[in-house]
């Protein structure tokens, strides 16, 4: 039965409802009421203050707008009214005094009205005069163009002082200049009344200029145009000097969006390259003004609020009539510039209310938690007791199973208990066989079908990544095994056909590392009962150990049951530099002693020293070669005895060393072999250096399970078989450089706490697949 189904029948549903209403309903209702009243009052107060502040802001901006509009009209008034006065004077004056009237009136206006830049007068015949500022404010410069038949047009320039006295006079070619082709003349004649031109850039001063021109008929019945040029630089300076709130700005544009004066004038002029027709606001740099002008074009003039980047701005737009055209005055200011005090007060009140609400909510939450804590603790204790009782019952069932450690019994109870506790769809126990390359399913239990199966075998070559993950000895959990590269191969080979997706793996650890793995498929409570799974892994490891020792004992009895009198009569040590097992036995080992050691050895350290043919050909004297090899052999014998190796044997160009050849794992075998390897390398390098020879050897080490026994009849020799022997030889042959010691990943994991290594990388080993190798560098 699932622990989620355990309930207390003594608790009536009506009592639970009453307790809930008393402990939760009343406190929550009271707190919610208080919060609602405070929040409503605070929000109303905040909205009232904000509405009043915005109204005040709009009124202030409207007043500011009126003031600016009057100033702009005052700026333009001298041009509009002055052109009318000048027209009346020139229209009724005699042609002989026309130039004097133009000079007297225009020079007076030029000296007293700073925004006026220059004056033009031209007639229908193309004659032209202009008056502008001289080198200082009191001097004026007069330029005239009088066209004569059969003569090229010439500009006559005069510089006059305040009294009209000519200071300097010179002439310049007029070229193709004709005032009748310019807009201020042609458009004014066409309009027949006072006409304002569009702003344009004067080439000489590079200033944005606006011209007010008016036509009239002279006494000689010619059509004349009198024009006053206004520099918008003065208007731009005035608008930029205004202070609108704390950070507000004013800008003057035409109805098409061209910038005339004010904020952004310099940026727009620089971006347009001095072309007035392209001087518009850039939305990236002036987003508020751009949006405010868009609102004006859609809704017309007036005050409104726009929001840009989460901040509110107050904007006011107004039309300013200029001749037949009209300009747009745009004022923009942040909302909080004018209402900052009111907003701050409103925010403080709102913050105070929020704090009160938070405190009230906290008190209500504490009341709720205090009321529910006892019920929750009581429920948790009851649930914990139920879970503990359920797990204890499961453990008791496993512990009292009569054939739990009987190797001949399958102990199907283990997988059933694992599946029941974790709610797994399927639970399985896998064992790593002694060859280290095969994973066998001992038992698999399908909880939905209530059936057992087993006997599946998978090789490490097919499940390399899965074996690597299991060999580290850590639990593994994945919700989608198909997408997890660690268990993707296991999913494709085993899980996909059953339709399961999630996987939980718990290693089964033996005395020398992982000996198997427990897998739970689609188990929602796997991590909750991970401690229970670990206990089951320990029980399974004990079963594996019992099965192993039973098999070894049976093999030993089978070997000892066959008499072999000839084996005792012969020397088994032939061919060994250090006879197998001679250490600690006074140097004597009989065939009977070795016969007792035959069988399976779970963790044997094997080292292969591969010598190059250069040792044999380095010297021409064969006797010198023999002496060198004999010296090295004796040195290797001494080191082997000193380090406690099991045996050392020389086979052609190879020297094979063995340590830890026992039926029970020798935890110090790899340690002794690594020490011997470092000592042999150092002494061999010294011997070769003394003979003036380069290093001509490579060393490889592996540790793993092997089989051993006596070979032959007369005489017999002790020999070992297993993958560790081949791996050690491949490590020696594949060492990166001469004189180096290359070891397998198993050796590295066993010795990394005591020795220094450097990783070489991943390599493909025939029969073993991809594996990591390391170079033994020295002792820590």
UniProtKB/TrEMBL annotation:
The keyword Lyase applies. InterPro entries: A/G_cyclase (IPR001054), GAF (IPR003018), Nucleotide_cyclase (IPR029787). Residues 591-732 form the Guanylate cyclase domain. SUPFAM superfamilies: GAF domain-like, Nucleotide cyclase. It catalyses: ATP = 3',5'-cyclic AMP + diphosphate. It comes from the Bacteria. Keywords: ATP-binding, Lyase, Magnesium, Membrane, Metal-binding, Nucleotide-binding, Transmembrane, Transmembrane helix. Its EC number is 4.6.1.1. SMART domains: CYCc. It is found in: Membrane. This is adenylate cyclase. The lineage of its organism: Bacteria, Pseudomonadati, Pseudomonadota, Alphaproteobacteria, Acetobacterales.
């Amino acid at each position: 039965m699932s622990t989620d189904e355990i309930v207390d029948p003594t608790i009536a549903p009506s009592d639970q409802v009453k307790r809930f209403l008393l402990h939760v309903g009343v406190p929550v209702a009271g707190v919610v009421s208080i919060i609602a009243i405070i929040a409503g009052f605070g929000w109303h107060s905040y909205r009232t203050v904000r509405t009043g502040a915005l109204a005040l802001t709009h009124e202030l901006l409207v007043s500011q707008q009126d003031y600016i509009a009057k100033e702009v009209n005052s700026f333009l008034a001298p041009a509009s009214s002055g052109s009318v006065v000048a027209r009346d004077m020139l229209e009724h004056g005699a042609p002989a005094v026309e130039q004097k009237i133009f000079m007297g009136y225009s020079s007076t206006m030029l000296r007293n009205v700073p925004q006026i830049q220059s004056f033009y007068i031209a007639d229908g015949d193309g004659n032209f005069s202009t008056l502008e500022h001289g080198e200082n404010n009191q001097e004026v410069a007069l330029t005239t163009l009088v066209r004569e038949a059969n003569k090229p047009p010439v500009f006559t320039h005069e510089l006059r002082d305040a009294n009209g006295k000519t200071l300097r006079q010179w002439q310049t070619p007029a070229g193709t200049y004709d005032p009748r082709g310019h807009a201020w003349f042609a458009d004014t004649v066409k309009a027949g009344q006072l006409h304002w031109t569009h702003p344009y850039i004067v080439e000489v001063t590079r200033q944005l200029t606006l011209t007010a021109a008016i036509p009239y008929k002279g006494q000689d019945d010619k059509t004349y145009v009198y024009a006053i040029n206004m520099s918008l630089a003065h208007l731009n300076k005035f608008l930029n000097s205004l202070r609108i709130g704390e950070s507000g700005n004013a800008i003057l544009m035409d109805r098409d969006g061209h910038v005339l004066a004010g904020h952004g004038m310099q940026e727009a002029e620089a971006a347009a390259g001095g072309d007035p027709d392209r001087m518009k606001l850039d939305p990236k740099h002036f987003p508020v003004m751009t949006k405010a002008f868009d609102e004006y074009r859609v809704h017309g003039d007036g005050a409104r609020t726009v929001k840009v980047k989460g901040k509110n701005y107050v904007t006011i737009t107004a039309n300013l009539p200029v001749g037949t055209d009209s300009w747009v005055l745009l004022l923009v200011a942040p909302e909080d510039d004018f209402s900052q005090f009111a907003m701050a007060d409103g925010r403080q009140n709102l913050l105070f209310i929020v704090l009160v609400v938070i405190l009230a909510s906290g008190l209500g939450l504490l009341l709720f938690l205090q009321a529910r804590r006892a019920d929750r603790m009581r429920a948790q204790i009851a649930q914990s007791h139920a879970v503990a009782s359920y797990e204890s019952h499961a453990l008791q069932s496993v512990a009292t199973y009569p054939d739990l450690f009987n190797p001949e019994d399958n102990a199907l109870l283990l997988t059933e208990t694992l599946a029941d506790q974790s709610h797994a769809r399927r639970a399985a126990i896998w064992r790593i066989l002694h060859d280290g390359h095969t994973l066998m399913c001992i038992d698999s239990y399908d909880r939905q079908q209530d059936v057992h199966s087993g006997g599946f075998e998978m090789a490490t070559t097919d499940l390399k990544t899965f074996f690597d993950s299991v060999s580290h000895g850590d639990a593994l959990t994945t919700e989608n095994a198909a997408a997890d590269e660690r268990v993707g191969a296991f999913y494709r080979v085993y899980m996909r056909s059953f339709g399961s997706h999630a996987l939980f793996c718990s290693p089964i650890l033996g005395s020398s590392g992982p000996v198997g793995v427990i897998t739970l498929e689609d188990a929602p409570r796997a991590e909750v009962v991970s401690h229970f799974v670990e206990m089951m892994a320990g029980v399974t490891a004990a079963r594996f150990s019992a099965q192993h020792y039973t098999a070894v004992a049976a093999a030993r009895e089978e070997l000892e049951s066959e008499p072999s009198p000839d084996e005792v009569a012969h020397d088994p040590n032939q061919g060994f530099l250090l006879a197998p097992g001679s250490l600690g036995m006074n140097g004597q080992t009989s065939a009977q002693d070795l016969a007792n050691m035959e069988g399976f050895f779970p963790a044997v350290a094997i080292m292969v020293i591969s010598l190059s043919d250069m040792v044999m050909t380095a010297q021409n004297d064969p006797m010198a070669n023999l002496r060198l090899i004999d010296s090295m052999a004796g040195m290797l014998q001494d080191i082997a005895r000193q380090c406690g190796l099991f045996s050392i044997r020389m086979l052609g160009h190879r020297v094979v060393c063995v340590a830890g050849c026992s039926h029970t794992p020798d935890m110090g075998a790899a340690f002794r072999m690594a020490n011997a390897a470092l000592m042999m390398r150092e002494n061999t390098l010294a011997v070769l250096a003394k003979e003036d020879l380069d290093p001509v050897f490579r060393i490889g080490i592996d540790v793993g399970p092997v089989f051993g026994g006596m070979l032959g009849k007369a005489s017999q020799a002790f020999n070992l078989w297993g993958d560790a022997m081949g791996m050690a030889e491949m490590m020696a042959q594949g060492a990166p450089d001469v004189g180096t010691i290359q070891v397998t990943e198993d050796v590295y994991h066993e010795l990394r706490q005591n020795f220094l290594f450097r990783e070489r990388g991943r390599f493909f080993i025939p029969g073993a697949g991809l594996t990591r190798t390391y170079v033994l560098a020295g002792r820590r």
